Amino acid sequence: MSGETGRVLVVDDDPTVAEVVARYLVRDGHRVECVADGRDALRRALEDPPDLVVLDLMLPGLNGLEVCRRLRETSSVPVVMLTALGEETDRLVGLETGADDYVTKPFSPRELALRVRSVLRRARGLVVPAGTGVLRDGDLRVDALAHGAELRGAPLSLTAREFDLLAFLMRHPRRVFTRDELLERVWGWSFGDTATVTVHTRRLREKIEDDPTAPRRIVTVWGVGYRYEPAGAGEAPP
């Protein structure tokens, strides 16, 4: 398998949707397993971790949000959520829970397949942020090539999007970016819900800030966006 394909667990209780999604993903080179129940999905994902989970929100047994929340307690497996059109609250809660991306129903199966490839590439470190060095800011260390980050010597459990956002901001210290700019330059989306940026920023702060309610590193510039305020920025050789 190439770096953009892998084993995908599709979780949807609508057999028609699951069949269509599976067919497109198999055509794209993935191996696919389908389950229709939230509890079964969680058990399978923990027993034999897939490379990525496509997860519907509305499921019997456990809903998609709870499945994602429990997965995130022990796993950083990428998750692409399927949400109903117009259910903005569900999308935001899904991102807060730890989803890497979402696609709204009704969706284009081809769009979903492209999103799956994109998330897999980022999760495997195949999309390397500009530059190849190791970024340091005090006790925070980010290695773009190894696709890893450490705080006070301890590994940080970051999703692919969280890692990309942190690396991008650290490479542009003290520069303010609007949410639209971050959506385009980190997510690669020319349009979309900027609340995605807000949620990922909040989750990232919870992992790297001593006090996420009074962040020192990722600072909000009210009415504009965010900037990275380093204690001492620099780039060291790998």
Task: Please explain how this structure is put together.
The chain has 238 residues and is of the alpha/beta class. The protein contains eight helices and 13 strands. It has helices at 15-27, 38-47, 64-74, 88-97, 109-123, 160-171, 179-187, 195-208, and strands spanning 7-11, 31-35, 52-56, 79-84, 101-105, 134-137, 140-143, 148-151, 154-155, 177-178, 218-221, 225-228, 233-236. The strands form three sheets. The chain has a five-stranded parallel beta sheet, sandwiched between helices. Strands 9-8-7-6-13 form a five-stranded antiparallel beta sheet, covered by helices on one side. A three-stranded antiparallel beta sheet has the order 10-12-11. Helix 2 (38-47) packs parallel to helix 3 (64-74), helix 6 crosses helix 8 and helix 7 (179-187) crosses helix 8 (195-208). The model is unreliable at 233-238 (pLDDT under 50). This is Response regulator transcription factor. The modification 4-aspartylphosphate is found at residue 56. Pfam families: Response_reg, Trans_reg_C. Residues 132-230 bind DNA. Keywords: DNA-binding, Phosphoprotein, Transcription, Transcription regulation.
